[in-house]
Amino acid sequence: MRNSLDADRLSHRWFGRPHAELDEEERQVLDRTAARRPITRDTNEAFAGKLSFGDRMADRVASFGGSWTFISAFGVFLAVWAGLNLALGRGAFDPYPFIFLNLMLSTLAAIQAPIIMMSQNRQSEKDRLDAANDYQVNLKAEIEIMALHEKLDELRDRQLGAMILKQQEQIDMLTRLLTEKGR
């Protein structure tokens, strides 16, 4: 920004309040707009840089755990487990009602649920980052549109003023001609 006077003048013009009263996002957008700098940023890149190994692993687990591949593979595993134990009869390692299988399913659910919730929480954070970026981009676009309207209004007023001056010159010339002819 060129100086604080410009910041205040632009703030009053586009936000209707002093620069000091703007919130941080509005101030940042106003300063970048005045400096003709872009406001957009790649939120995916910014967010990906903050992910730890555990975060990336949780995202992969959640991605696989919520896929048809997982559901199909797990369905096949359950069918094989039950079929094998039923076929072995009395020598089965987990006879009907498959108590060990139920224990493994409960353990899997107990581990998988918080991992999926961690991934969903991170996705919510990313969505908030995207929303904040969208707000800034929209605010900058709105400011740019207002500035364009001001320029168009100024241009129209200048052209209208020039037209009025030209018409006044023509009226003055006609008045002078009529006055000279009437003598």
UniProtKB/TrEMBL annotation:
<feature type="transmembrane region" description="Helical">
    <location>
        <begin position="61"/>
        <end position="84"/>
    </location>
</feature>
<keyword id="KW-1133">Transmembrane helix</keyword>
<keyword id="KW-0812">Transmembrane</keyword>
<dbReference type="Pfam" id="PF06210">
    <property type="entry name" value="DUF1003"/>
</dbReference>
<dbReference type="InterPro" id="IPR010406">
    <property type="entry name" value="DUF1003"/>
</dbReference>
<feature type="transmembrane region" description="Helical">
    <location>
        <begin position="96"/>
        <end position="118"/>
    </location>
</feature>
<protein>
    <submittedName>
        <fullName>DUF1003 domain-containing protein</fullName>
    </submittedName>
</protein>
<keyword id="KW-0472">Membrane</keyword>
